[in-house]
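HUMAN:
Sorry, I am quite new to this. Are you able to go through these amino acid letters and fold codes? The numbers rather puzzle me.
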Amino acid sequence: MTLCEYLDLWLETYIDPKRAENTGRAYRFALAHLSPEIRRTELHELTPLHLQKEINQLAAVYSRQAQIMYTGLRAALKKAVRLDLLDASPMEKVEPPEHEKREIETLEPDEAAAYIQEARRQPAGALLILMLCLGLRRNEARGLRFDDLDADGILHIRHQRTRTGLARLKSRASRREIPVPAALRAFFDGANGEFVVNVSEKSLRTQHLRVLAAIGVDRRITLHGLRHTCATMAVEDGVQLATVQHLLGHAHYSLTADVYVHPDLRSLARCTDVLFGSFWHQPPGARLEIV
């Protein structure tokens, strides 16, 4: 069996039925960058050197795609070992590509307030506001139906929109309940089973960019940046990380901590002031001088 034949079978058997649609699409796009030569190579003839060369060549041009290729090949060939198709995975001796993650831009509090006011003028403004205020992923927001909000004001996140329709969220952590502030509950006044807003990803993104332009924000704030804004403001306001983790639907506490705990200079200044105050017992404004 060639690598190409095996990867196609692996994706169809283990990724498509069990993972999010976007995951399968990302793997296919990254693995399509494999050279024709290595795609025709028999599984048992693969070597770490050949695979490392493929990943390095892609990383030199598209570091993120190389990272996805590495992850996909590592998972696929590990499964091949468990299926007795290989004695050992050559990916165990392949080094991961370097990839510097881009910092996701977020809105400042005053910009977020202006964003909410301007988003109300857009056809899909309800979804943009819910993404910003509740930290929803874009396809979770697109999949919202009027009856997802119960009589007690609890929003039940269970589905997401895909290219083929409505799909159930597969992660237990992603399936969550979020209390909705009273002011936002009017967005859910409609017929059961119908979408709060029936909108494509492209149209939602266009409306988002329109709002940013209207409020004078020229930084690269993506739709996902609304979710990051929500989480970042929650952390800065002192909300416990475990609570933010549930709000976002993260499976692991470490992910929430790694992404959203990044103290700004004001926070660090308060920290150093507190620490120094523990050692320096003098009237406010007194200066420490070295003789």
User: Anything to note?
Assistant: The longest helix spans residues 63-82.
